[in-house]
Amino acid sequence: MRKALLIEDEESCRTMMAAILSDYDIEVEAYQDPTLFLKKTGKCPSVDVILTDNRMPNMTGLDFLQRIDEMGCDIPPVNRAVISGDLTSRDLNRIKELGIRFFHKPCSIDEIYDWLTEIGIISEN
Hints:
Strands 2-1-3-4-5 form a five-stranded parallel β-sheet, with helices on both faces. By secondary structure, it is an alpha/beta fold. The chain is built from five helices and five strands. The chain starts with a strand and ends in a 7-residue tail after the last helix. It has one domain (2-118): Response regulator (Rossmann fold, 3-Layer(aba) Sandwich), CATH 3.40.50. 41% of the residues lie in helices and 21% in strands.
């Protein structure tokens, strides 16, 4: 079974995204804040894909993704995504630099499905 790390501070969004991923037979480890994940594990996530919100109270999603790069984690950039409704031009430049996927919030289930299919996490039905 594939695994996903989901970081989203809004509980309703986190619950909905976790349910969607679970529907695709993806095991989900969900956190409301990236610092909680880092405090709990202190190591690279052992997942196939990461989905994170960007604007959160203690650390942005982009800072978290950069942090796991600095830790030497081996999750390919194409298997990482930021979901946000509010990005600056600096944020968009960082997304390009990190080589990760961006979804504008609210994004559709089809967009997530297409991305997960494109990167081989799920198979087309």
